[in-house]
Design a protein that fits this description.
By secondary structure, this protein is an alpha/beta fold. The protein has helices at residues 19-30, 42-55, 72-85, 110-135, 149-152, 159-179, 198-203, 219-225; strands spanning 10-14, 34-39, 61-64, 91-94, 142-146, 186-191, 237-239. A seven-stranded parallel beta sheet has the order 3-2-1-4-5-6-7, sandwiched between helices. The two termini are 29 Å apart.
Length: 252
């Protein structure tokens, strides 16, 4: 892939200070994208910003935000900040998520349940709602949600996390159906499957994480979803391991 593959593309990514989000931010910036970095960890955001300015000569932007506290007013302000700094928004990658705890429903407390749904689902709805007008100004806009195996097939003890990811599946389908005939926005819901991250470590503490694939192995999938080539795809749900470059008809 050429260095300037994403030259001057404005891409907002949530949860950029660790795991998939951090690797994704660094890689897409190296391809020339202006990354709008959203996280609540200001110290790491500042360090990443300085590195991108020096190494990639791009035009990144920091959005310090605690998704648990995000409301309609703050989401609107966030959209205005993006609009003030860029002519349009080319893509949003909703990557941020928290696990909460592994627990049976009988033992699940309401406070944790509501926190997980707020961070993983409600904040995504608020951001998507307020960023859609900016995406419509792009020639090749993308919204990429991050899915999970427990979104389609719920499992015991995954509680609010599983519910939140199932909700994101529904949200991605709703938005895709709504924008299909009125804009060029393409919506994808990507399941990275088992990938090395803090969330994975919390869910599977006894697992040998060194044998789990590194987030860098996901980059080709994101590059395809952000490409012109993916515009002709009818897929919404994409899984790691699937063939990206075959026709949709071949998958039926």
């Amino acid at each position: 892939m050429v260095k300037n593959y994403l030259n001057k593309k404005n891409i907002l990514i949530t949860g950029v200070t660790s795991g998939i989000g951090k690797i994704l931010t660094e890689c897409l910036s190296s391809y020339g994208a202006n990354i709008i970095m959203l996280s609540k960890n200001e110290a790491v955001l500042d360090a990443m910003y300085d590195e991108m300015i020096t190494k990639d000569s791009t035009d990144p932007l920091i959005l310090k935000c605690d998704l648990e506290k995000l409301n309609e007013e703050n989401a609107s302000k966030m959209s205005k900040i993006v609009q003030e700094n860029y002519a349009n928004l080319d893509a949003v990658i909703f990557n941020a998520a928290i696990l909460g705890k592994m627990s049976d429903i009988e033992s699940y407390d309401q406070t944790t349940w509501e926190k997980i749904l707020k961070v993983n689902l409600t904040s995504t709805f608020l951001m998507a709602k307020n960023l859609l007008p900016l995406l419509k100004e792009s020639t090749n806009p993308r919204i990429i949600f991050t899915s999970s195996g427990v979104a389609k097939k719920a499992k015991a003890f995954w509680g609010a996390y599983s519910v939140s990811k199932a909700g994101l599946n529904a949200l991605s389908e709703i938005i895709s159906d709504e924008v299909e005939s009125v804009s060029s926005i393409k919506v994808f819901n990507f399941n990275p499957k088992a990938t090395r991250s803090k969330l994975r470590s919390l869910a599977y503490p006894a697992e040998n994480h060194k044998i789990i694939k590194h987030p860098v192995d996901l980059i080709d999938y994101y590059l395809w979803m952000l490409s012109d080539e993916s515009s002709s795809s009818n897929k919404i749900y994409i899984e790691y391991g699937c063939l990206l470059y075959t026709s949709d008809a071949a998958d039926e």
